[in-house]
Specification:
Layout (H helix, E strand, L loop, with lengths): L5 H13 L3 E3 L1 H6 L7 E8 L3 H13 L5 E4 L7 H9 L3 E6 L1 H4 L4 H16 L6 E4 L25 E2 L10 E4 L26 H11 L3 E6 L8 H28 L1
Parallel strand pairs: 1-2, 2-3, 2-8, 3-4, 4-5, 5-6, 7-8
Helix pairs in contact: 1-3, 1-7, 3-4
Bound molecules: zinc ion.
Length: 255
């Protein structure tokens, strides 16, 4: 079976459940007492193709699992899909990128944050946010919180800043590999890469690692719903990874 398909994602979730993990949303992890149990936080950054997010949300619901879905504004802000994902029992959060949008202007960025958050809240309750990595921007959206406090907006946590130090092993599918080698910004500061590439490897690792806490970041658009989408998505990832390698090269030269 091909990797990075919805079917394969189902295998991954079943392996997590079979290994004895309790799955959690980001908010569930931040507000619940989950320190002393085997836990897996499920986070989805909906960067593109919101329809894929809905398919993934339906699959998870059918397996009795709730996750957190972070939608961008306006890139993946599709009210009907957001409402459906929420009604399936998932947490909906705001995937903000306002510092990049505002070109580094903090005042403009925080005003935009308030406005876009209000748009989400016309659809459902939003209590956690997550920065979008904005790979082609020189601004790191998380820096907004050096000047402001998200709690002033009724936000209980940020998916990077508030999850650090929770003793969770961070796993991300960036670049359609689990090795973490294509991640620019979307890593936890203290993340140690897992020694796997494919989802089958990851399943083996989950069955044997005995890790207490997992924090999975999965981009639904990378998990193909059908064969043609897998081929097209694979080519796009190759190009994106090539582009990021260019950015990495420039970053290391300018240091
Ligand atoms: Zn993103």
């Amino acid at each position: 079976m091909r990797d990075f398909t919805l079917e394969k994602y189902g295998d991954l979730i079943r392996a997590i459940l079979d290994a004895g993990y309790t799955t959690l949303t980001v908010r569930g992890c931040l507000t619940g007492n989950c320190r002393n149990m085997q836990r897996a936080v499920l986070r989805h950054d909906v960067d593109r193709r919101p329809v894929n997010a809905l398919k993934m949300a339906e699959l998870e619901a059918s397996l009795g699992v709730a996750a957190t879905y972070y939608f961008r504004y306006p890139a993946t802000f599709v009210p009907e899909i957001i409402r459906q994902v929420h009604s399936l029992g998932h947490e909906v959060g705001y995937h903000y990128e306002v510092l990049a949008k505002a070109g580094g202007d903090y005042k403009k960025a925080i005003d935009l944050f308030a406005r876009e958050l209000a748009e989400f809240r016309t659809l459902c309750d939003v209590r956690t946010v997550c920065m979008h990595g904005s790979p082609l921007s020189r601004y790191d959206n998380r820096d907004l919180w050096k000047g402001y406090d998200f709690r002033d907006f009724g936000i209980e946590g940020e998916a990077y800043l508030s999850m650090a130090g929770k003793n969770l092993r961070y796993l991300t599918d960036t670049g359609r590999t689990w090795s973490g080698k294509h991640s620019l910004r979307d890593m936890m500061p203290d993340a140690e890469p897992v020694p796997v590439e494919t989802t089958d490897d990851l399943v083996d690792w989950i069955e044997s690692s005995g890790e207490e806490g997992l924090y999975l970041t999965v981009h639904p658009e990378r998990w193909a719903v059908g064969e043609i989408e897998w081929v097209a998505g694979g080519v796009k990832d190759l190009l994106m990874n090539a582009g990021k390698m260019g950015v990495l090269a420039v970053m290391s030269i300018s240091k």
